[in-house]
Specification:
By secondary structure, this protein is mainly β. It has strands at 2-6, 9-11, 17-24, 32-38, 45-50, 57-59, 67-72, 77-82, 91-98, 105-107, 111-115. Helix content is 0%, strand content 51%. A hairpin with a 4-residue loop joins strand 7 (67-72) and strand 8.
């Protein structure tokens, strides 16, 4: 099982980034996919969730209206489009896959997002 995030970087406040998470080694379409983030000195925070079957989506209040999660099951990839970025969005962003609450979950290595002028 492998999850590989990409797309992080340095961006000015108000800018945009699109993160990607390429999955392999499991049946991607059957897994709930999530993006989490962790800022220095803070606990890991759930940012967005997209379900497997219906594609239903949930966002943290802190990113609602600015971030968009999506998935392409044909490409085994989940995305996080981040617009109107703020300095408080600075964190390492992690991709997570879990089939159901009783199964093990998988994590990527993370990608750094820094929002600064």
């Amino acid at each position: 099982v492998q999850l590989v995030e990409s797309g992080g970087g340095l961006v000015q406040p108000g800018g945009s980034l699109r993160l990607s998470c390429a999955a392999s080694g499991f049946t991607f379409s059957s897994y709930v996919m999530r993006w989490h983030r962790q800022a220095p000195g803070k606990e890991r925070e759930l940012v967005a969730t997209i379900s497997s079957a219906t594609g239903s989506i949930i966002y943290a209040d802190s990113v609602k209206g600015r971030f968009t999660i999506s998935r392409d099951n044909a490409k085994n990839t989940v995305y996080l489009q981040m617009n109107s970025l703020k300095p408080e969005d600075t964190a390492v962003y992690y991709c997570n896959a879990r089939r159901n609450p009783w199964s093990p979950d998988y994590w990527g290595q993370g990608t750094q997002v820094t929002v600064s002028s």
